[in-house]
Amino acid sequence: SQLSAADLQRVVEVARDRTYPKNSVILFEDDPGDALFVVAKGQVKVVLIGEDGREVILSVLGEGEFFGEMALIDDEPRSAHVIAMEDSTLYVLRREDFQGILEHAPGIGLALLRELSRRLRRVDEKVGSLVLLDVHGRVAQLLLDLADETPSHPSHDRPDDRLVPRDGVADDARARR
Q1: How far apart (Å, rounded) are the C-alpha atoms in residues 122 and 119?
Q2: For residue 54, what are the CA distances in angstroms to 37, 58, 65, 78, 168?
Q3: Spatial CA neighbour of 66 closest among 131, 10, 22
Q4: How far is CA 146 from CA 16, 121, 131, 173, in A?
Q5: Which residue of 73, 78, 111, 164 has the lowest C-beta tally within 10 Å?
């Protein structure tokens, strides 16, 4: 979910900005959560990495989107790794500042609730497709999901990194030979 311009400005006023080069790890799964991140420029992926090194992309986030809120809300460790897909600048909002903003900017709290609801719905849909659809149905659903995530008027100055590369389609659809 993207923040409104006014809400993003509130975040910018109290946040620090940090730059991460392409492929750098921003957060590690199981690290303590003490900050929320807003993508100012670039693109990041939220991933789970198995013991064998395989990665499952949970989401791809771009400008105006945020991550890291779960650990601030429930005081649990980070639930996934976050990796820069390209050179990225992020606004980093410490826990104390995050709580202060929530008290004074209800729009940010509502945006957070909307995003958490959207993510929960996506998980529900993913679980449903894993249980109820065969491999062909899961691949079809994955392609539909990718189409929904792709802008209707993509920028012509760079490729959409959510579609390239897609050698993990079989993994995403949980297909086995």
Answers
A1: 5
A2: 25, 13, 25, 19, 10
A3: 10
A4: 32, 16, 20, 12
A5: 164
Chain segment 52-78, per-residue pLDDT in tens: 999 989 889 999 888 999 888 888 999
Helix, strand, coil percentages for the chain (3-state, nearest 5)? 40, 25, 35
Between CA 53 and CA 102 the distance in angstroms is 37
Tokens found for residue 144? 């539909």
Non-local CB neighbours of 18 within 8 Å, separated by 6+ positions: 89, 90, 92
> d(Cα 14, Cα 100) in Å, to the nearest integer?
10
Domains (range + CATH), the chain = 5-105 (2.60.120.10)
- Measuring CA to CA, which residue among 45, 58, 166, 163 is closest to residue 118? 58
Q: Is the peptide bond before 32 cis (omega within 30 degrees of 0)?
A: no
List pLDDT tens digits, range 114-151: 888 888 888 888 777 777 778 888 788 778 777 776 65
